[in-house]
Amino acid sequence: MSVREESQITIGGEDDPAKSTARRAGKRRLVICGIAVAAVAAAGTAVALTGGSSRKPPSGAAPATADIVRTDLTDQTQVDGTLGFADSYTVSGSGRGRLTWLPDEGRTIRRGRRVYEVDSRKVPLFYGAVPFWRTLRSGVSGGRDVRELESNLTALGYGDDVTVDDSFTAATAAAVRDWQDDLGVSRTGAVAPGDVVIEPGAVRIKKVGASLGGPAGGQILTANGTAHQITVQLPVNQQELAVDGAKVGVELPGGRTTTGHISSVGTVATASSDSDDQNQAGQDTETATVPVYITLDHGSSAGHLDGAPVTVGFTSSTHKGVLAVPVQALLAQAAGTYAVEVVDSAGRHTVPVELGIFADGKVEVSGSGLTAGMKVEVPRS
């Protein structure tokens, strides 16, 4: 039996097939004597179990070989995750008027662009943290909402004479009128709470819940941020793998790979929802997971995917400067031991080896007389 963990294999006990999916996903590949042979065979190598087994090339043909290399091997534990978008927002209307335009789901909306229309009046997106709760006009008292208004007007090119502060001045009112003129709405010089949508940044429309012609009140749509994010439910017994800022490997649909880093780790563990009531108390600690959030180093690597299952590789250990050979070079021997077939000027001879970690199609080996640069026999492709 084996549990998927890239190319890595460690020697250990059998896994319990009754464990939950979350636990199985993070298990390292387990090898017990001949079980390791199956892993090697899966890599394309036919392995005999008789002592001293070797490969014999066709008569007169030179054996296929690969170099023994000195390298760094990283042992990774792979866990399933979900690719999506970071952050979640709910956009609600003020209740005045009727909806006359709504965005398509999946559309990205940036500062100054319309989020929806009410009575054919555009309601654009402004960036900020404080929703407008009052009408901003000349004479209004200072506040953070005034600063946000001025910051957005300046970012949109209307703030040449505006000082971004907490005060609504005549210059602010003039900038508002210029912006309103370009937006195609009445030049009042004032901004009411329902005139703009305030979110921390650009948004991607997730779901439109309102209908054209419906009242512009209550929840109109939901949205996400525009940055991709991966969420992994990591078993609590492997929580030590998740360190803020740590690098991870990511396998995307179709076999494409990229890298990311851990942006945050949840602090509340939750148990699997499929535990039955009678056994829940005993199983909760076994099935409990914590959420781990991962940001892609190159956001474009996700392409146009809105959401997808992915596999995340967490580094559990790194062996530096070790000797390694291709997994296909291993020969299974009696009693669960292994060897490689060294090819040199003196011919071919079998060298017993001890195995370390498996990674990227290679395996760490140590054996009498083995050095980097030696040739070992591998199957012909």
UniProtKB/TrEMBL annotation:
Any transmembrane segments, and where?
Answer: 30-49
The record's listing under SUPFAM superfamilies reads: PGBD-like
The cellular location(s) given in this protein's UniProt record come to: Cell envelope
Q: Any keyword Transmembrane helix?
A: yes
- Gene3D superfamilies in the cross-refs: 2.40.420.20, PGBD-like superfamily/PGBD
**What's a GO cellular component annotated to this UniProt protein?**
cell envelope
The region called Disordered is annotated at 1-23
* Principal location class: other
Recorded protein name is: Multidrug efflux pump subunit AcrA (Membrane-fusion protein)
- Source species: Actinoallomurus bryophytorum
Query: According to the entry, what is the taxonomic lineage of the organism?
Result: Bacteria, Bacillati, Actinomycetota, Actinomycetes, Streptosporangiales
